[in-house]
Amino acid sequence: MGGVGSAGRALAALLLAASVLSAALLAPGGSSAPDLDKKKPVELKMDQALLLIHNELPGTNLTVYWNFDRCYHCLLQVLANVSQRRKAGEPGIAAVAVGTQHGSILQLNYTAEDKEVCRLEYKFGEFGNYSLSVKHVRDGVNEITCDLVVNKEPVDSNLPVGIAFLVGMGLIIAVSFLRFLLSLEDFQNWISKAINSRETDRLINSELGSPSRASDTQPEAWRRSAAPLRLRCVDTFRGMALILMVFVNYGGGKYWYFKHSSWNGLTVADLVFPWFVFIMGASIFLSMTSVLQRGCSKFRLLGKIAWRSFLLICIGIFVVNPNYCLGPLSWEKVRIPGVLQRLGATYFVVAVLELLFAKPVPETCASERSCFSLLDVTASWPQWLIVLILEGVWLALTFFLPVPGCPTGYLGPGGIGDGGRFWNCTGGAAGYVDRLLLGDQHLYQHPSSAVLYHTEVAYDPEGILGTINSIVMAFLGVQAGKILLYYKDQTRGILIRFAAWGCLLGLVSAALTKASENEGFIPVNKNLWSVSYVTTLSSWAFLALLVLYPVVDVKGLWTGAPFFYPGMNSILVYVGHEVFANYFPFQWKLGDPQSHREHLVQNTVATALWVLIAYVLYKKKVFWKI
C-alpha cells in the first residue's frame, strides 16, 4: 500500500505540473500585442495599451498628465504634449503607451496657462487601442468634452492564470477522489474507529511509513512517545509559503499581483515571507522542547542556536550578492540585509528568548485543562514582556526619531508620493537608520517603491527596524507552537485558540489601519514590516492553521502533498532556487518576452521542478539541516 501511495503521489505531482503547463500554453489572452495598426507609432510592451489623443481645439496646445490611481497622493507625470488643430478635420494627434496594471488618472491642461481642461479615470486593458478626443461640444460653444473610445478590444492577460488555477484545482480534486476510492476499505475502518474511539492516524501511517523519518507523529502518539515532535501541518504550511515564494521570486508570470506592493497594501507576494517567519517560530518551540526533553544542556543548545544563526546570515549574504561570473565582488557594494539574514537574526533572538525562560511542558494535568485556560500565555509572561518592549522600541523609533529633512513619524514612500514634498524620505526612520548604520551602498538598490513612486534613494525591505517586527511575528508563531503542544490532547481547545488569536489579531489590524489601505494610523506595509502588517499576516496564519491542523494531522484527510516535501527541505529549496535561478531548466530564452503566458509557463515549470526535487530528496532521506 505504501508503494502504491508513493507512486500515486508522484503521478499526481507530474499530472498537476503537466496540466498547469498545458493550460497555460493553450489559454488565449497571454500572447504578445495583436496587429492593431500596422502603422502604429508606438511599440507596446507587456502591461501597456495604445492611447491616441486627438486635440480638436483650434489654437490650443494641450499637456497630458498621467499616473496610476494606486499611487497615493502622487504628482501626476507628463505623458504627452499635443499640438493644436492644424485645420478643420485635421486634429493634433499624439500616440502614447499607458500602463494597464492599475487604473489610470488622466488630466489634460492648457499648455500655456497650465489650467485643467478635463480629468478622467479609466482602467486600460493590455494591448488595447484607445482614442481620447478633446473638442468643443459643438461649434460656437466654449464647453469642452473629452471622449474616450475603444478602437480595438484588449486581450485578457489574466486568463492563463485563471485557467491554470481551475485545471490545477480540478486535478487535485480528481486525484483526491481517486485516492479515496482506492482506499475505501481503510476509510470505512477509519469511520468506524472514529465513532467508537478517539481520532486515529492509521490511514496516514499506513501510507507514509515510519513517523521518525517521515514526521508523521499524530496527537495520540504525543502521549505515548518521547520522540521528537513534528507536525505535518507545520511542514505543509512552511512548504506552501516556500513554494509560493519560489514562484514569486522567479517572476510569477510577470503579473503585478505576484510582485511586492510598491508601498502600502498587500499582494500575493507580500504574504510568503512573514508566513515563513511565523512557522519558523512555531518550529523553534516544538523542536527546542523536544531537544531539552532529551536531556540536551541549555549551554550546548545555545551554541547550536548561535552557530545556526551565523550560518544563515553568511549564506544569506552569499545568496543576495550573486557575482559568480563578474569577477571579484567589492565590499563597498555588498548588500548586507536580506531574507536569510533576517531569518538568522530573528531565529537567534526568539530561540535565545525561549531558551532562557524554557519551562517543562506539564504532562499530568493535560486532560484537565479547560478550553478557557491561558496557560500557554501566562507561562510565557517574561517572553511576552520582552517582545512588547521590543515593539515599544519600534514604535518609539518609527514615530519619534528625528530624520533630517523629513517630518518626524513619516511612514510614506517619498518620491512623487505625498505631492513630492518628501522626495528623499523613503521609509522615514526605517530608511534613515539603515542608511546611517549600514550605508547606502550596502542596501537594496531597486526597492519596489521605485515602481510607482519613482524613488531614488536606496531602501532595504529587510532592514534593521523591520527585524524587530519580524521577531514579533516569529514569537506569535511560537505562541501557535505552544498551543499545539500545551493542548495536544484537546483538538477542540486548539482550534478555539487558533480562531481566537486569528480574530483578535484581525481586530487589532482593523483598528490600526481603520480598515483602509492608506488612511489608517499604521497602514499595512511590507517594506516597513509595520506592526499592522505583522498582525494581519499573523491573523491569517492562525486561521490557516485552523484549517490545516484538523485536515492534515487530526483527520488525515490530506497528507499535505506536494507542499509537505519542500517544507521538509526548506533551506535547500530556498538557496537552490536563488543560486540556479538563471540556469536551464529553470530559465530559458522565451519566444516572446512580452507575453505573460510564456513567463507563466516558465515560472510554473521552474517551481514544479523544485517540488519534484524536494520529493526525490525526501524519498532518498536527504535533508539539509543547518
Description:
The chain has 626 residues and is of the alpha+beta class. The protein contains 20 helices and 8 strands. It has helices at 2-26, 159-182, 184-196, 202-208, 211-214, 219-224, 232-249, 269-293, 298-319, 339-356, 375-378, 381-400, 429-437, 449-453, 464-486, 491-513, 531-554, 564-568, 570-579, 596-619, and strands at 48-55, 62-68, 77-82, 92-99, 104-110, 116-122, 129-136, 144-152. A 4-stranded mixed β-sheet has the order 4-1-7-8, with no helix packed on it. Strands 3-2-5-6 form a 4-stranded antiparallel β-sheet, with no helix packed on it. α10 (339-356) packs across α15 (464-486). The longest helix is centred in the first third of the chain and has 25 residues, at 2-26. The protein is globular, with a radius of gyration of 28 Å. The two termini are 34 Å apart. Mean pLDDT is 85; it is low at 1-8, 28-39, 197-228 and 364-368.
